[in-house]
Amino acid sequence: MHMNILVTGGSGFLGKHLCRVLVSAGHSVLNIDKKPFSEVETIQTDVLDQAKIEQYFAGKDAVFHLASYIEAGESVEQPEKYLQNNVMGTLSVLEAMRKHDVKRFLFSSSAAIYGNPLHTPIKEDERTIPINPYGVTKMAMEGLVSSYVESYGFTGVALRYFNLYGPGEDHVPETHAIPRFIQQINKGEDVTIWGDGSHKRDFVYIDDIVRAHLLALELPQGYHYMNLSGKNATSVIDVIHMLETILGKQANVKHFEFRPGDPLELFADASKAKEVLKWEPQVGLEEGLQKTVEWFRSHTA
Ligand SMILES: NC(=O)c1ccc[n+]([C@@H]2O[C@H](COP(=O)([O-])OP(=O)(O)OC[C@H]3O[C@@H](n4cnc5c(N)ncnc54)[C@H](O)[C@@H]3O)[C@@H](O)[C@H]2O)c1
Helix 177-187 and helix 285-299: axis angle, to 10°? Predict the structure, then answer.
């Protein structure tokens, strides 16, 4: 069924992929982002400017709210910036929806809400005690959305991604492991890792994440929250070895002292998404890394 969809943060890494797939699925897409994106109609503004963004919500069937600041490390240095942007930004979008009777809200939550989990693989009923302000903002966003579900009959969907990666990821600065490793190995720079690299993480490919968003459009009224994870947890050092093979270059690995509080294992159980969305990750790490490296090859000099 054709829908009129508003995306916030559609000019970012995930947003661009999502907008393209929504358009090719036959939906009408309007993007609100501070940054430009020429492939869909984009209103270049801040979602915090509620008076300005409000007008664009009339007649929309669903909103994907991706706009956030995303750097956990930076959020420790600048908590207020993160709280203001992510939490108040979400409130601004929810209020614009309420005024225009738009009730379907899907948004980017994060593994960061779990902090240091007590159990792996992490299930959705794991305790949620974030350990940085970025995680706090995602937790607060979840609480805000569930309260709009309760008070105004919204449908709220929190998609808790683990480590998302794929073609097109070029954050500045780049703190995410896979694009950082690719660039460092390519340039012959030191590849810095904490400890011996045996800590396991959960890498999930962009196309799998985007597919889950489209399936989530069909969910019934209520508050839904679920993990979206990759096929298998993989140690950081194994990711580096896989990239060495694909790139045909040796990495200059430099080990730093293991960070206290950095969980040894951080990966999810995504059986809830399988049950609720009939979703499972399809792209294995090897294939996903291959495609990501190809993108870097064709986009960097
Ligand atoms: N990349 C990951 O591994 C990962 C993991 C878990 C969750 N997430 C979440 O997924 C979402 C998308 O992540 P991404 O990697 O595409 O990030 P990104 O930084 O590439 O994209 C975010 C976009 O939001 C926009 N934005 C931020 N604040 C805004 C504001 N106030 N008004 C208008 N636009 C604003 C930015 O300009 C940017 O284009 C984020 O909410 C992030 O927290 C990402």
Answer: 50
Between CA 79 and CA 84 the distance in angstroms is 8
Give the distance (Å) from ligand 1 centre to CA of residue 140.
Answer: 16
Helices (H), 78-222: 79-82, 89-99, 133-152, 177-187, 206-216
Gyration radius (Cα) of the chain, Å: 19
In the chain, domain spans? 4-299
Dump pLDDT digits (tens) for 160-184.
999 999 999 988 888 899 999 999 9
At the topology level, CATH places domain 4-299 in Rossmann fold (3.40.50)
Test site for ligand 1: of 70, 110, 171, 204, most ligand atoms within 8 A of the Cβ: 70
Q: What is the amino acid identity at position 161?
A: Y
Q: pTM of the full predicted structure?
A: 0.97
Catalytic site includes residue 56: no
Per residue in 71-130, pLDDT tens? 999 999 999 999 999 999 999 999 999 999 999 999 999 999 999 999 999 999 999 999
